[in-house]
């Protein structure tokens, strides 16, 4: 590396100084050197160099500068001297000396190649030293089979793009500091977009970054957008393994486990290569399960986005290159946007997208995609590559011909006029000139020469595609045939595919033809694994050799040949390739192949589904159905059932809900057996629920359960509800970990009953709230009576949650029972069903959202709810995911997480709620956002309006948030009014929100008591203490509630003038809040302690507590509370 750097510096500081001893030349500093003087200097320098090299004097050396001779005599004298090239010197030295001697200082007598100035001489001398292999020593070109010389192109050198290189390098430097950025490059095909990007690759790898790239293929990638992206990330796993140390990989394995938890199984299905990153991940890969019925494109993209967050960092940035964006469709852009535009902004990603600026008018989706980066606050740079400047083009041609740039200028000027400076077009024009004989290498001169007059008159094609096609038409039939077949297969062709085709009689000459195409410069062979077209335009030209009317037949014949050669073998790697080829000519299928091809396309559809590429799956499965006869349900019943269910799942995953429902309705109408209908019924009920058709979903579940022998009442009164809850409580008295692990597995039909009952529980909360308890209890009783199924865990946690959410004042016995049943259900799910991820979102929502808050730290519950959101979104359970999100941010708030952090999470979830049109999540998160903004800074306060109301939750949620805001703002009467009405609404009963409300109401009542000393207000405080003590009695280390109890007791003792006990309780409240990491409640306890000490004249103590409160509120991120405490401190100091 160092030697190469030294060689690059050779001659950089070369200086030429020559002062001939000639009285006719004025050498004084003040003189201006005329062209004639320069000619004399050049002449003398030429004579000197000639004598230095040849050791003989040139005939013109005897001629005086003042001698007047004719041009003919001058030419005779120049030619009389022996050429240096004939003496064995390189042609460059010979030309340099000859052109020095030809420089006469006047335009009349000077030859075309003579030097114009000494500056140009210096430039040539620099080139001889800077690049001796190209310009000093003779470079004899290689010859093709027909004897044609090849130009010495510098394939990897980027000409004339210095400014653009600086721009893209600077952008990456910003990324390597820990930020993400996007860079878009437009330009005509062949303008050097890919080479510009490639110029950065080595720098990225040098700083520990990763580079992944993909070229969009308008022919082969169509319909397989997600598969293409997934393959890129799968390849990234191998790159990471290569570049990271074993210790790094171990740390990465830990990060994967922490980030993905149960979701890792889905990641392992999506990216099998993730298992190579560490032994722990390999073990988890071996335990992977199947995908979710509800997974969709967005959910899979979310998983890939999480993967990016883990693997990319400031020390290991990722450069993601996508070439030919103009061939991407709206689905491609949706996928890329979902993955690359990170709401949280924790990825360290440099996305580079190239597109043909003259072809984007056919793809209007490209610019909204670019805008999406800007909309999400990701710095975005856009540049457009025009043709090269004539000087840069001349440098490129000079390098290709190994001739001094000055000599190439006439040729470059013509090429520039014909190509407008497009580098790829220019190189192909030069190659065409060589083929025509107008540009050729002359051996005795050891240099390239050209015929400018013929080139000027030559009719060069207006575009490179036509030029390439014309050249290909002149090839032998065998090479053309190979190029056509290769073009059908895409821009890159695996050697295994060539091997299969070459084994057939029709394509036996394929390998030989491809090797000839490589020799002709149209293709490259990459090691022994694949052939590749040298440029997009070369591929397009090869594909254009096939007449449009013949293209479907070409594809079909290639596909059938591959299928017949691979039939019965493992098609894992090429099943999509075979299917895509056949699909383009599917109307030509002979009757005897239909059955085979139905199986082929079903296999392709299943593989695409397993790979989470639902769009491709729909295409393959649709083809399979189209190959069946009109009476397919009679002739191909089993295949129709399987394919139709997969089609419905794929349509739903792609967001085509209407198509999914139509397919499911067809299945339900045609199938006669209830067992065959059950998968369709369940998917239909799930889709209806996700679309907001709650009652229709409930009715579907009701209909199925009736057919399975379950009688669901149409209504139930409170007494009957109490009775069945008591019966179920009695039946679950013995439920513990061992009970569920040892109990027999439930029969398959009962499992389906439980599965529909579990879905019905979720639906009934909105459709039939009065029946919710009955359905929960029935599902639990079935578990007790008939055995355990995977769904039993969910049924049990639903019942456990019912125990602690059905009473306004939670009883200790209910907390104990709920905790016991909930823990047993979670243990059963983990040990018996290996933490099945399809249940995790609902299990975590219920268990950590309602039950675990009484026994586990609030922060731990919040983290599990975040996992519930992640897994839910990954598996396509959007409604459940967003319910986890609502709980997550609510718990973060009550746990005292920094307000800015909570707001970031709320904004991220809110964007998803808006995208998925989830009104419940949208309204709740919007209201919470206003509350958080108010607490952060009162100036940001926005009143809660009617359009934020949520049906069924409106009054409760509005009053709840108004009350919370009023309490922290110090408006005690408004707080008393709002929270006094909240507890009558069921949505907040038994949840952490009710406990929080009880705590706030209790504290606020002491402020109200100062004005209105009523028994009712005093009763509120006593009830709050009693309820929180009951909750604290069940909490491990009283983590979530002890500080609240102590603070309420401190206020009570203060109101009753028990000052010493009040001081002890304030100290205990502060200590417990600090231990539980509730920074906001620690600040609140310090603030109230400060108020207490100030009211008793202990100003120094009060100031100390106020300073502590200010510190806590600062950490909480509440500028509003900091301002209030600052005023209290000023009041103390003023006093």
Structure explained in plain terms:
This protein is mainly alpha-helical and 1135 residues long. It has 53 helices and 10 strands. The strands form 3 sheets. It has a 5-stranded parallel β-sheet, sandwiched between helices. The longest helix has 20 residues, at 35-54.
Quick summary:
With about 1150 residues, the chain is mainly α. Helices cover about 65% and strands about 5% of the residues. Helix 21 (about 475-490) packs across helix 24 (about 535-545), helix 33 (about 695-705) packs antiparallel against helix 36 (about 750-765) and helix 37 (about 770-785) crosses helix 38 (about 790-805).
Using brief descriptors, characterize the structure shown.
disordered N terminus, 1135 residues, 64% helix, single chain, mainly alpha, 53 helices, flat
Fraction of residues in β-strands: under 5%
Q: Residue-averaged pLDDT, rounded?
A: 83
**Termini gap:** 75 Å
Largest beta-sheet details: 5 strands, parallel
Count of helix runs: 53
- Which structural category fits the helices and strands? mainly alpha
Shape: flat
- What is the percent of helical residues? 55-70%
Widest sheet: strand order? 2-3-4-1-5
What is the count of β-strands? 10
| Alpha carbon gyration radius | 40 Å
